[in-house]
Write a structure and sequence with these properties.
Elements: H1 26-41, E1 45-50, H2 56-66, E2 72-76, H3 84-94, H4 104-120, E3 125-129, H5 136-146, E4 157-163, H6 165-171, H7 177-180, E5 183-189, H8 195-208, H9 221-228, H10 232-249, H11 256-267, H12 275-283, H13 313-321, H14 325-328
Parallel strand pairs: 1-4, 1-5, 2-3, 3-4
Helix pairs in contact: 1-2, 3-4, 8-9, 10-11, 10-13
Length: 330
């Protein structure tokens, strides 16, 4: 909708796991290095955890994109299964193996046969499980048992677990001591923790999308940091909405006025931004940025467009989208 107006070749803040838009902050770079080293070292288990929306899935897709060694990789994202048999079916599907109509023993036999065959061919196999915090102790123990197929000749199966902080809490339970002892490498990804990183993040994604890195003026970054706590997914939501609002108003740069408008409207919705972000973080006893005056202290207002005939910002943006480019940019 706004791409042509801002000379972008794609939406820079779409909330999809696009490895081409992954901003490698120092900790994201370290997490990627840990994953790459774990692959090269054929570590039995590697664990990457992080808060919701910090880019874990995007990091995995970047890892797969950057692979320059021959590996057989299966990615499982559906971990909320009714039984371990169902979870085994998802694992087989990830490696394009037949899984239909098989009992647990047959599923296990199919997978172990595949692992042995690939090992004999010199093809390392890596299983990546996203959203692994949903597995629970029983499934994790089953995974540990599955890894027992590894021999003295090497790791037949390598497993990488990606999950939210609950995964780390889960792995610290006494009943999972044997599993925890097999974890060779782990890393936690925290939110971006400074205004400077927020600015670099936003400017990187704009430039990677073909735009001018100065599209957002300098005094907007502090507001975005305070209202999102440095969580990339929330930053994307604020910035994408700001571009829609800027486009609707015909503004070539995103200024404080636009960010203020976005935050006011988001605070009156169900989105955990601004005041709602502060409330949700207080409930979880997480420390958030406290530098400067925060929009999170602004009282929530009712949507001013309700009950009025005045066009909303989104409606104005839709109208501009239907106009010829020349008139849309005046």
């Amino acid at each position: 909708m706004y791409n042509t107006f801002y000379n972008l070749n794609k939406a820079p803040f779409a909330n999809i796991p696009d490895p081409g838009l992954l901003f490698l902050s120092p900790q994201h770079q370290r997490a990627l290095s840990v994953l790459k080293y774990a692959l090269m070292a054929r570590a039995g288990f590697c664990v990457i955890t992080g808060d919701i929306g910090t880019g874990k899935t995007t990091l995995v897709r970047r890892l797969l994109q950057d692979l320059d060694v021959p590996l057989e990789v299966g990615l499982v994202s559906n971990t909320q299964c009714e039984s371990f048999e169902e979870f085994l079916q998802w694992i087989l599907l990830a490696f394009d193996l037949e899984y239909r109509g098989k009992e647990k023993v047959e599923l296990y036999d199919t997978f172990t046969g595949y692992l042995i065959d690939q090992f004999q061919k010199g093809h390392p196999v890596t299983l990546i499980i996203d959203e692994a915090q949903h597995l629970g102790p029983e499934y994790l123990e089953q995974l540990r048992m599955l890894s027992n197929i590894n021999t003295e000749k090497g790791q037949i199966l390598q497993t990488i677990l990606i999950g939210q902080p609950e995964l780390w809490d889960l792995l610290r339970k006494p009943e999972l001591d044997q599993f925890a002892q097999r974890i060779s490498y782990d890393y936690f990804i925290a939110p971006l923790n400074s205004v400077e990183l927020i600015q670099s993040y936003i400017q990187y994604r704009i430039e990677a999308s073909g735009g001018d890195k100065n599209l957002f003026v300098d005094d907007t970054f502090q507001l975005i940091w305070e209202s999102t706590g440095g969580i990339p997914r929330l930053i994307n939501l604020v910035c994408d909405t700001a571009l829609v609002y800027g486009y609707a108003e015909g503004k070539k740069n995103i200024d404080r006025q636009i960010i203020d408008q976005v935050l006011e409207e988001k605070e009156s919705s169900f989105t955990p931004i601004g005041k709602r972000f502060e409330e949700s973080q207080d409930e979880n006893s997480l420390q958030q940025p406290s530098h400067g005056k925060s929009h999170r202290n602004r009282p929530i207002k009712n949507n001013p467009s309700r009950g009025k005939t005045e066009l909303t910002t989104i409606e104005r943006a839709a109208l501009r989208m239907n106009k010829p480019n020349k008139s849309a940019e005046t």
